[in-house]
Write a structure and sequence with these properties.
alpha/beta, Uracil-DNA Glycosylase, subunit E, 11 helices, 11% strand, binds uracil
């Protein structure tokens, strides 16, 4: 039966050859296939992100904002997406919310910015500073997950609801969940408000301060 099938197939191939079709290696796509795994160093991951064209934001961005800080940081801060200043400089949290984040790190945690690692859920600025769409967030997420895998922080502090929601899949309102340690795939997360929310709503200052004290206490328990 198998021989008959092969003979018929061969006959068909000869007919196609007579019609002028040329033989093409069936492995052509395999040979050209790219390695789809992400690099295993932050440096190479940043290089790959810099060339990324996986979503439409690559058409409007000026710079990919990969993240910066201590590659062995114990604390990783994750915001939502670069703004206009970050997009032109290529570094996260450079504008007013960045200044506030720096003060939070220095004045409450007693650390310097270079002790921690700072990045965003999205590595490119959303057009018009729009809220990241689910497609953009899911497309960009492998970069963040790989950063987490490589940095291995003891604690991730998510800034605002976007980073928290996409990292955990949890839709709980940020006002209810903030300051409460969460476990996700073996890493710990403490969510708090985004510094730009704090700039617009100075009344949540006390809550953010309390959340950072929890971050501090969490880190002291870990050391
Ligand atoms: N807001 C963010 O979430 N990230 C930045 O880098 C700047 C503003």
């Amino acid at each position: 039966m198998k021989n008959l099938k092969n003979a018929l197939l061969l006959k068909q191939l000869y007919q196609l050859k007579q019609l002028g079709y040329a033989y093409t290696s069936a492995n052509i796509y395999k040979e050209d296939a790219q390695d789809l795994t992400l690099p295993n160093t932050l440096e190479n991951l940043a290089k790959q992100a810099a060339q990324c064209h996986l979503c439409e934001l690559s058409k409007t961005r000026n710079k990919v904002v990969f993240g910066e800080g201590n590659p062995n940081a114990d604390i990783l801060f994750v915001g939502d997406a670069p703004g206009i200043t970050e997009d032109s400089i290529g570094k996260p949290f450079e504008g007013r919310s960045g200044e506030l984040l720096t003060k939070m790190i220095e004045n409450v945690l007693g650390l310097s910015r270079s002790d921690v690692y700072i990045t965003n859920m999205l590595k490119c600025r959303p057009f018009n500073n729009d809220t990241p769409t689910p497609t953009q967030a899911h497309t960009c997420q492998p970069y963040l997950l790989k950063q987490i895998e490589l940095i291995k922080p003891k604690l991730i502090v998510t800034l605002g609801s976007v980073a928290y929601h996409y990292l955990t899949g949890d839709d709980t309102d940020i006002s209810k969940i903030r300051g409460t340690p969460q476990q996700q795939n073996g890493y710990s997360i403490i969510p708090t408000y985004h510094p730009s929310y704090l700039l617009r709503n100075p009344s949540v200052r006390k809550e953010v301060y309390d959340d950072l004290l929890k971050v501090k206490a969490f880190m002291q328990n870990k050391s």
